[in-house]
Amino acid sequence: xxxxxxxxxxYLRPRLSEDAFHGLVGDVARSVSQKTGxxxxxxxxxxxxxxxxxxxxxPHVWFGGAEQAARIFAVIVGDSASRKDTVLAAVxxxxxxxxxxxxxxxxEYGLQSPEAMIxxxxxxxxxxxxxxxxxxxxxxxxRMTRSGNFGPIMRNAYDGRTLQISRSRGGRxxxxxxxxxxxxxxxxxxxxxxxxxxxxxxxxxAAGGLETRVLYVLSAQQADTNPFAMVRGEDPTLVExxxxxxxxxxxxxxxxxxxxxxxxxxxxxxxxxxxxxLAPTLRNRWEDIVNRLPQVKPDFRHLASRGxxxxxxxxxxxxxxxxxxxxxxxxxxAALALWTFCARSMERIFGVPTGSLEPQVDPKRVGRLFExxxxxxxxxxxxxxxxxxxxxxxxxxxxxxxxxxxxxGLIERRVIQTSGRPRTEYHACGSDSDPFFVSSYxxxxxx
Length: 447
Prior knowledge:
By secondary structure, this protein is an alpha/beta fold. Helices cover about 45% and strands about 15% of the residues. The strands form 4 sheets. A 5-stranded parallel β-sheet has the order 4-5-8-3-9. A 3-stranded antiparallel β-sheet has the order 10-12-11. A two-stranded antiparallel ribbon has the order 1-2. It starts with 8 loop residues before the first helix and ends with a helix.
């Protein structure tokens, strides 16, 4: 196995199926990853979140008794070596060229409060779209929770429900004005490290369901790149394809209304309701889709409870990127591949070192041991592991720590026969991960 040269997170990162690299989305992810050395999975989720916000709340997919627009809350989890911020900047640059009006006016950096968010998408503001772009998710959560209603407002924003606040005039509580957003279309891209996420996770749980509405991607660096060689600007072909996809989606929505309604919608900055049709081959395949949803470990099932909704929204965003007139099987396949990656990322992020383990296993020690083994890049023996904990761990506890990593497929064990007692050694592996993302580029891996 190749010795890891960056972060142990590369060993934790799940395998991303080639199905997720569908169409324009895949072409952008490959281009961004090759240019920045960053994670293509992060590029995919950033791209889908941005295009879903840029096109607006229409068209939607009618699913589960509700309109599901391509609204996505994405949180990329990685250390400083993962280049998640560089990947985000590259995807931003693509949208700044393809849709400069949206990029210059509808992205909000460093949002201060839920109230400020509602005012920016309020009725009469001329635009209900907003992409929250937060380079420090921990800081964002801390700011937003000061208002006391962070959880309900963010849940309603994800669901597209009416948002409303009251503002006092002249400092008088009995002289209020109501600020209302009837059709909010709010998406989010955020960055955070695993350590920061473990600290704010209790706050997210207290928000009452917000954590189930977030897609997590465990991001790791793919390769070293020369920062001087990172030339600004995307392939003009990708820019043109993205511009065509966005304009086609908006035009298709307006084409469904009569000329007068169309002009009124344009003047008011709103879109008429329009449900994207399902391809005939997809209509009777829901049971098959459900059966393909990933099985999540019991400790994390509550986090994956919105899996079907995530799949539909992601598939919708893939269809928008294709400029497709209908939601097809290929979009569901791509969305299932990405959601599976997100579900596995979630297990890894919260499983080491912050997940629920057996009572006798200290999760901090599990994380410490995994990081030690992964950073070695070679087999380590029991004596080295014992020395790691300064011989302050009993044999029973140490066995439990090692067994928890073995059970999760994060390390492997071998026994070396010697002239005396056999020597047991351990190596970081990851049950279905690849340290350098060979699975993302299968053609290259065969060379």
